[in-house]
Amino acid sequence: MGHTGHTRHIYNGMPAKDLGTEGWQKPWSGTNGGSCVEAMKLGDGRVALRQSTDPEGPALIYTTHEFETFLRGAKQGVADFLLASD
């Protein structure tokens, strides 16, 4: 199960540091020196994202459904426009 941190109320935009330091993962960081998005699965199934270069900055909190929908779309190429150059 994921980590829930020491906070009673987990909300979108909360300081990521309030979720603790354990449980953050960055499997897609590759060779960019570790500058990437980190993810944590929360105890209630939601997913928290933060910027690895700002670990105390805001955490974006997504429901399981929201994150599954995003991942499915990304796998199908729906988010490819984010990578396209102008």
Automatic annotation (TrEMBL):
Pfam name, any one: DUF397
Source domain of life: Bacteria
Disordered as annotated region, ranges: 1-27
Domain DUF397: 23-75
Protein's name according to its UniProt entry: DUF397 domain-containing protein
